[in-house]
Amino acid sequence: MRNTAPAIDIGIEKKTRQDIAQGLSHLLADEYTLYLKTHNYHWNVKGPMFNTLHKMLEEQYLELAPAIDDIAERIRTLGEYAPGSYKEFAELSSIEEASGKEDAEEMIREIVLAREAVVRTARKLLPTADEADDEPTADLLTQRMQVHEKTAWMMRSLLQ
C-alpha cells in the first residue's frame, strides 16, 4: 500500500488558500527584489554617506533574508509552491531592479519607494487573510508592514 499524505485541513478552503498563497507569492517577489536591491546598494554605495549607508543597508538585507524564508514557508504551509526563480520574481514583483550605479541619495529614495511598495502589496492581501480567519498570514503581513513602514521613515529622514 502506498503512503499518501492527508489533505490539508486547517479550516481554510482550498480556493481561499490558493488566493492567499498567490498574494503571498507577490509579497515574496517584492521582498526578494527589495533584498536584492538593498544588497546591491550595500555593495555599490559611495560618497560621504558611505559608512552610514553601508552599515544600514547591511542591517536591512540581513533582516530581509529570514523574512523571505518565512513568507515562502507560509506559502508551502498553505499547500502551494513558492516561486523561487528570478524570472518568477520579475513577473510577480511590483519593484524594479536596480543597477547599483545610482548615487547615494537616489539609492535612499529607491529604498523608500520599494519599502512602501512592499507595504502596499501586504496591505492588499490583509483583508483576504482576515476574512479567512488566517491569523498566521495576517500576523506575518502586519509584522512585515510594520518593519517596512518604519524603515521607510528612517531612510526618508536621511533625505530631509
UniProtKB/TrEMBL annotation:
Short name of one Pfam family = Ferritin
Which keywords are on file for this protein? DNA-binding
* Record-linked InterPro entries: DPS_DNA-bd, DPS_DNA-bd_CS, Ferritin-like, Ferritin-like_SF, Ferritin_DPS_dom
Please give the SUPFAM superfamilies that the UniProt record associates with this protein. Answer: Ferritin-like
Stretches assigned to the Ferritin/DPS domain: 23-160
An example of a GO molecular function for this protein is: DNA binding
By sequence similarity, the record places it as follows:
Belongs to the Dps family.
**Name the UniProt record assigns to this protein:** Starvation-inducible DNA-binding protein
- What is the source species? Litorivivens lipolytica
Tell me the lineage of the source organism: Bacteria, Pseudomonadati, Pseudomonadota, Gammaproteobacteria, Litorivivens
